[in-house]
Design the sequence.
């Protein structure tokens, strides 16, 4: 009997989501919204004192002083948007406290005239996670403690889906009309790190959960692998604005731009800038500005995530002469003065 009523409740829940869902923004609405924005330029941001998303958001390690200082570095070169990852485990521990810290972060960002694109889920890097103190970085290893969310736990614990539903709904409901939030990135690189088709249920659900709320901000799910045709089609169909990742040279970047222009929606490059691949500020950022594409590179301040070191390295080596990602040292001095001069020039140009 209990199983029967549980099935009825689940069916009613699905029906309610389907019948009350908001439709994706029309192209005209998306373009009008984008036309009201300045040219958007920024970075994927985590404070240099955090090794991963949980360390950023948990109460014992939330670091508003560093966030304030480092967003100040971004503002000095004209950056006006940050892409910031959340993690559901911080919400599970303390929903009210987590939302309070998000609000505190947004207040700091707003002081620097920086808007935020929040990211909910992520299929990249370490599969296991836990609340409480996080392990220190593996010396010299790129993103050694970055966390998937929810990773393989969703396959082992199906009931987690309900927790994730409540989490997404709570955050979106609290911030659906907050003008400090630029947009919502629902799922970073679905299918990556071997998840493949196992990512489909959560991807479809998070779209339904977001559409069940009357958001004032657009949603997006970034295209990251041109070979993931089914994922890409779904992501494009369900994005108000189109976002994509591209860490390659100017030829490949132009191919990506050309392939996405046909959808006639605003374009956001939410990950780029891998110096060793000739994806540099000097080469790529002017292309994005010329094409009126939002430019959000990976990394602001080199810190505990160690993304200035090359991806896939074993660790133990000296800091590379040519940084992989990131812009500033912790003291605010740039890796390359020519880069920050160019960023300031591009962000100040009308």
Sequence:
């Amino acid at each position: 009997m209990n199983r029967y009523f549980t099935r009825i409740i689940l069916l009613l829940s699905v029906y309610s989501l389907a019948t009350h869902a908001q439709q994706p923004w029309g192209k005209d609405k998306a373009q009008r919204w984008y036309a009201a924005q300045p040219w958007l330029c920024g970075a994927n941001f985590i404070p240099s004192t955090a090794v991963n998303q949980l360390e950023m958001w948990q109460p014992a390690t939330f670091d508003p002083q560093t966030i304030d200082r480092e967003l100040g570095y971004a503002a000095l070169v004209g950056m006006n948007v940050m892409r910031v990852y959340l993690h559901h485990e911080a919400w599970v521990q303390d929903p009210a406290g987590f939302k309070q810290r998000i609000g505190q972060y947004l207040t700091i960002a707003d002081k620097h005239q920086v808007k935020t694109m929040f990211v909910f889920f992520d299929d990249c890097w370490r599969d296991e996670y836990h609340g409480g103190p996080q392990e220190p970085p593996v010396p010299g290893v790129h993103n050694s403690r970055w966390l998937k969310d929810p990773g393989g736990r969703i396959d082992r614990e199906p009931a987690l889906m309900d927790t994730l539903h409540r989490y997404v709904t709570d955050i979106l409901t609290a911030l659906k009309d907050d003008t400090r939030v630029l947009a919502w990135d629902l799922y970073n690189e679905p299918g990556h790190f071997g998840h493949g088709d196992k990512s489909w249920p959560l991807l479809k659900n998070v779209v339904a959960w977001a559409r069940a709320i009357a958001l004032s901000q657009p949603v997006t799910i970034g295209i990251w692998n041109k070979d993931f045709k089914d994922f890409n089609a779904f992501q494009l169909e369900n994005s108000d604005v189109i976002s994509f990742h591209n860490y390659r040279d100017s030829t490949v970047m132009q191919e990506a731009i050309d392939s996405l222009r046909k959808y006639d929606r605003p374009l956001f490059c939410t990950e780029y800038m891998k110096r060793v691949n000739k994806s540099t500020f000097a080469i790529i950022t002017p292309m994005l500005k010329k094409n009126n594409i939002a430019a959000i590179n990976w990394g602001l301040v080199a810190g505990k995530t160690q993304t200035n070191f090359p991806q896939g390295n074993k660790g133990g080596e000296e800091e590379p002469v040519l940084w992989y990602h990131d812009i500033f040292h912790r003291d605010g001095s740039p890796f390359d003065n020519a880069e920050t001069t160019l960023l300031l020039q591009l962000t100040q140009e009308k």
Residues 2-20 form the longest helix (19 residues). The domain at 2-348 is CATH 3.20.20.80 (TIM Barrel).
